[in-house]
Design a protein that fits this description.
Elements: H1 2-25, H2 28-57, H3 66-90, H4 96-116
This protein binds protoporphyrin IX containing FE.
Length: about 120
């Protein structure tokens, strides 16, 4: 399950970057396809992460659940920010603030996934 989770968020980030660059180039048709596949990956991230989270939360031997909840909030924020950045780029808007939030939450999510949990 961890492997599927890592694969899906990695693919989502790659597709997000490709869709972003295509929107930037003004190629609405191709970017839409990459955007749609990225959205499919978001669902896979939530499904795999949600399944692992459920297993951990129902495991009575796990005492400290706080970091798991924080990891979920961070992961959902990364997905939300990728979607916001793409939708804004589609309309021709670039907000530096959202990129700053994206990098902060993305790096924090990786830190939580690999170093804290
Ligand atoms: C783009 C968003 C996300 C990124 C970049 C991300 C990243 C990661 C990473 C790097 C790990 C550690 C994998 C490993 O042990 O090798 C992980 C594990 C995990 N993630 Fe995510 N994740 C994201 C979204 C989510 C979401 C939305 C949820 C919850 C619904 C979630 C729940 C979990 C859980 C429960 C684990 C297992 C922790 C463990 O077994 O140590 N993740 N994630």
């Amino acid at each position: 399950m961890t492997h599927a989770h890592v694969t899906s968020w990695f693919l989502a980030v790659v597709l997000f970057v490709i869709a972003y660059m295509l929107y930037k180039k003004g190629d609405q048709k191709k970017s839409k396809i990459f955007h749609m596949i990225a959205r499919l990956m978001y669902l896979l991230i939530i499904a795999t992460g949600g399944k692992m989270l459920f297993d951990y939360l129902t495991d009575p031997t796990i005492v400290n659940r706080g970091p798991l909840i924080i990891k979920m909030i961070l992961g959902l924020s990364v997905i939300g920010l990728m979607e916001i950045i793409l939708v804004q780029k589609k309309r021709g808007v670039t907000k530096l603030r959202n990129w700053a939030f994206f990098w902060i939450t993305f790096l924090l999510t990786l830190y939580y996934g690999w170093n804290v949990l």
